[in-house]
């Protein structure tokens, strides 16, 4: 990132996994970083994962009042915002015919409504040129994946929302999406057995799962000056998984 010390950055779901890697990358580049996460215990341990994070705010991104409270605190502390990374997300594998309505609504509330709420509040504070929103979607929003109907739909919505916001918010704010494939994160390890993870890796052309730091590197590029002509785009980073339609 160019001019990192001038950037005020928020990362949702930044207390673990990809979010923590993104927050760590930005702090390492010298940016001022606020981590928003609903896991209070994980935020309390954040110094181990994201040394240098300036703010940590307990926030459920699917709760409008909680999001507003977080932005009010950001206003008091920073008085503005330059970069918003929407990373917070939840998932629960379940056959479509067995999926409870409560799970469907919860996944959409966090993964899609949460992106809407944070992006809307962030955009209102990005008055001048140079604001950037990076949404973490998924290859699951681009191809069908059995047993993940709610998750797939939520991430497809994030991709379409990204394109729409890029048009509405230009030229002051750039908006892009990142679609990771299989990345070794606590959420992925909680859902898949080691044998299943090894099987997934064997079907990826590059022969392994992604690393959170690789997603963070792309997020840093998209938020930086070198990407100032990039908006409304969806960037797949999946080791070649979807090149031949392998997602499953």
UniProtKB/TrEMBL annotation:
<dbReference type="InterPro" id="IPR002347">
    <property type="entry name" value="SDR_fam"/>
</dbReference>
<comment type="similarity">
    <text>Belongs to the short-chain dehydrogenases/reductases (SDR) family.</text>
</comment>
<protein>
    <submittedName>
        <fullName>SDR family NAD(P)-dependent oxidoreductase</fullName>
    </submittedName>
</protein>
<dbReference type="InterPro" id="IPR020904">
    <property type="entry name" value="Sc_DH/Rdtase_CS"/>
</dbReference>
<dbReference type="InterPro" id="IPR036291">
    <property type="entry name" value="NAD(P)-bd_dom_sf"/>
</dbReference>
<dbReference type="Pfam" id="PF13561">
    <property type="entry name" value="adh_short_C2"/>
</dbReference>
<feature type="domain" description="Ketoreductase">
    <location>
        <begin position="7"/>
        <end position="181"/>
    </location>
</feature>
<dbReference type="InterPro" id="IPR057326">
    <property type="entry name" value="KR_dom"/>
</dbReference>
